[in-house]
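Have a close read of the entry that follows and walk me through the local backbone shapes. See right below:
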Amino acid sequence: MDAPADSPWSGAGLDPLTGHVLEHLVTVPSADADEVAAAVGVSTAEAARALRDLADASLALRTDAAAPRWAAGPPRTSLSALLARRRAELARTEGLVERLHEMYETVSGPRSAHLVELLEREDEVSARYAQLLKGCATEVLHLAKPPYVTSFGAAAEASGVADGVRMRSVYETEGFSDEVSLATAVRGTGQGGELRLAPRLPVKLVVFDRTAALLPVRGDRPSAGSLVVHSPALVEALADLFESVWRDAEPMSLSSRTDALPPACGHHGTPLTDTGATGSPDPRTREILHLMAAGMKDDTIARVLKVSRRTVQKHVSDAGTRLGARTRFQIALLAAERGWLGESQGLGDAVVGR
């Protein structure tokens, strides 16, 4: 008789139909199964089943043995008794959970085992990641750098983040052309996640609600296994590490991959920019210069924006001509000074690989 979690009757253990039947019964002195079926729009058999469930829960009374009719009991009294029974059941379940946890700690070895888990197989890592992600209620902090594990990305795609969970990711610039990282980033930003790029990341890391963290045993070999950290002090230190990287990373958006920007090229692939040496460039050129200043190479920019490498080079070359710059460093620096890169800060530092 359990109800779906989104049913208003789930706390009382009633399914939606049974709750609907009870709602009808309290509005009439009594009713038989046919009358209830007509009122709630179900078959007589379904109505009879719901009436029996209400009787079993002491929420309805059978008033006539010869021609069965049913009447609701006083809701406050009958439902209070039902809820009291449910609370007692939950208390017994909580006690069982505590006993099981005590047994788990005893069998698992040293007391430190509950502070750090060692996951040795790739399938264990993917399954544990999906479980931790699904259990998140507030935020996910993510540092992503190569090499990537394909099954890990698949687990992320299958799980996703719940509504209301804030996801912030920092990707290492050099590895951002990888198909797994790009697909994961596009999916994350599509779910409302925030994305930044950094020239170099200290470690691969995911922090879940600041209560658990996942990181590889060996950064250069993800297949060697991962650690799940539960120690509050260690998790907080890892969250602080993320925040430090996040502050210095370069914000970016992948919204242009959904064709949000207007067409950027003319009939022959020539970049379209505003006329005049000091005018602002078109949105596509801004996007390309922004990614270039963040340290991305032409191939990576082309893949992120779904354009050709030649298109990227034409935009960069055109910007260089207008700015009177000969190198990518000069282009990024002068573009930042002209305000062509929007609200981005610290672009000169990003170019030199801080």
Remarks:
- The chain has three domains: 1-113, 116-252, 255-351.
- Residues 1-5, 256-278, 343-354 have pLDDT under 50 and may be disordered.
- Strands lie at 60-62, 70-72, 116-119, 139-144, 166-172, 194-198, 205-208, 212-216, 226-229, 250-252.
